[in-house]
Amino acid sequence: MHADLSHRIETGMQTYPGDPDVEVRDHSTHAADGCRVASVELGSHSGTHVDAPAHTEPGGRTLDAYPIERFCGEAVRVDCRDLGDRDPIPAERVPDADADWVVFWTGWDDHWGTRRYLDHPYLTPAAARRCAERGFDVATDTLNPDPTPTDAAAPDEPDGFVAHHRLLGEDRLVVENLANLGAVDDRFELRAYPLALGGDGSPIRAVGVV
Questions:
Q1: What are phi and psi of 51, to 5 degrees?
Q2: What is the DSSP annotation of 52-115?
């Protein structure tokens, strides 16, 4: 069974605050040109996407430095749906499992396209460090493994990109904005192939295989 774990790329879709807007528009049409061609403008971290270490780490590896098989592997899903707005995911939630990916399932994709989507649960620095120590690449159905800055931020939250640095700094990959994680089991195969862009990140068509 294959489950689509991706958000649709479309004009006006939600992005990280300050990232480029997404626009999909007609470039050519059947009526005018005899064929249909779309023009797509978006940032490298739009929608469901994968981060390379180069995203936050000066000198970090770019996506094209990885063999293609790195983007497909065994995943363990961690149910974090009991957590609420801006709740931390502690290190104790990180499993001790034989897997390539750990996938944090918060259910926050239910809020996709709303202001509340920005106030998602996030990884504590200790949780991110434990993921790196256990050799996991990390995926989540939230905008960010770190807290996303909003007016609702608490003064004791980690500032900046601490979880990103803990993970990407240890040559781990990070997938953000997954969707539909209820369609897979606690163990599944995650396929998260980037576009052949190289660079700091890329949209992906994430698929879970059970």
A1: -95, 135
A2: -GGGTSTTPPPGGGS-GGGGEEEEEEEE-TT--TT-EE-GGGS---S-SEEEEE--GGGGTTSG
| Residue 144 host element (H or E) | none
CB contact at 8 A, 52 and 201: yes
* pLDDT tens track for 166-187: 999 999 999 999 999 999 999 9
End-to-end CA distance of the chain: 5
Q: Phi and psi (nearest 5°) for 202? A: -160, 145
Task: Give the Cα-Cα-Cα angle 203, 206, 209 (nearest 5 degrees).
Answer: 165
Distance CA 48, CA 76 (A): 18
Question: Rounded to an integer, what distance in angstroms lies between the CA atom of residue 120 and that of residue 95?
Answer: 21
Q: How many CB atoms lie within 10 A of CB 35?
A: 9
* 184: DSSP letter: S
Residues 6+ apart with CB under 8 A from 67: none
CA–CA separation, 203 and 195 (whole Å): 7
- Distance, CA of 113 to CA of 9 (rounded, Å): 12
pLDDT in tens, 184-201: 999 999 999 999 988 999
